[in-house]
Write a structure and sequence with these properties.
Radius of gyration: 19 Å
Oligomer: single chain
Number of helices: 14
Shape: globular
Order of helices and strands: HHHHHHHHHHHHHH
Strand content: under 5%
Number of strands: 0
Length: 315
């Protein structure tokens, strides 16, 4: 039991640090590297590494065409429109602010559930409303003031909406049963779209010798290996060996890690209203995660359908 506890907390902290630190790594990478190509090549590299892991483990990458296309489509929604836009947003806003906005995704999913006519507990609805007020504080008046910061905030808000809507819709998409295999196809789909978008946008012309500086290149490698491969592998292990209510703690720990690292490594100093909004978001996500976790563990007459892998990752 003690050994299992050590493994569980090790995996949790890997997810906390690996995914919480990606926002800082993105900020460093896009200092000189073009954002769309940075995101796209990161996912393609991670897909190749994960595919190698699957093959070494003697698991098959062969799936039905419908499953492959479904996973690729989810990858476009979550990775290309979601994470890819985070790279673009962080050319204009601080990494900590981006993480705070991304932290509202679980609350946005509650809104999508309500819009679809699902029954959502009153406590969850109230928590979501409070969290969305916090999101308004984080985005703040700057989103209406014009300029690069306003554009970055709106892009980041679009990215979070793309992630939450894609995560909710993915429950109806047929995906490969093996989560690692599904992720390979998701990263291929998202990575190819991002690289294509980067080439169309002319980002290849920005890849001069000055772009490949040690810091941004190291950040790109960190994103591909730690953010995508190591972080997801630890998360996939947790889904099989830990209660989901404990696994989803990353939803509110990751933004805190991102803000702390942004202040420590990049000297970012969020405004008081931004911090107040972040506190409301984190508090709302904590309440939502705990209440939903208790609800999931309670006996029911009819069990709800099991959430899909992308939904679990973003829920």
């Amino acid at each position: 039991m003690r050994r299992e506890g050590v493994r569980l907390w090790t995996a949790l902290w890997i997810v906390y640090i690996a995914w919480g630190s990606t926002y800082v790594a993105i900020k460093i990478a896009v200092r000189t590297l073009p954002p769309l190509l940075t995101a796209g090549t990161r996912f393609l590299a991670a897909a190749a590494i994960l595919a190698g892991i699957v093959l070494v483990a003697r698991r098959s990458l062969r799936v039905e065409r419908r499953e492959a296309l479904g996973a690729a489509g989810v990858g476009v929604a979550l990775l290309a429109l979601g994470v890819g836009l985070v790279h673009v947003a962080e050319t204009r806003i601080d990494s900590g602010v981006a993480a705070m906005i991304a932290g509202s995704v679980p609350l946005q999913i509650v809104v999508w559930r309500l819009a679809a006519g699902e029954r959502v507990p009153r406590q969850t609805v109230i928590a979501a409303l409070v969290g969305l007020v916090g999101l308004a504080l984080v985005v703040g008046p700057e989103s209406f003031s014009g300029g690069a910061t306003a554009v970055g905030l709106l892009i980041m808000l679009t990215a979070s909406i793309s992630w939450s809507s894609g995560s909710y819709a993915s429950r109806w998409v047929r995906l490969p049963k093996d989560p690692l295999v599904a992720t390979v196809y998701e990263m291929l789909g998202g990575g190819l779209v991002l690289v294509g978008a980067g080439l169309v946008a002319g980002e290849a012309g920005q890849l001069g010798t000055d772009a490949f500086q040690p810091g941004p290149v190291a950040a790109w490698a960190y994103l591909a290996v730690m953010g995508s491969v190591v972080g997801f592998s630890a998360y996939a292990w947790l889904l099989k060996h830990a209660p989901i209510s404990q696994v989803v703690t990353h939803q509110y720990v990751n933004p805190l890690v991102a803000v702390a690292l942004g202040a420590l490594l990049l000297g970012e100093r969020p405004a008081p209203t931004t911090l107040a909004g972040a506190a409301l978001i984190v508090g709302a996500v904590v309440v939502t995660a705990r209440h939903e976790g208790r609800a999931a563990g309670a006996p029911a007459v009819e069990s709800p359908p099991e959430p899909s892998e992308p939904e679990r990752r973003a829920a």
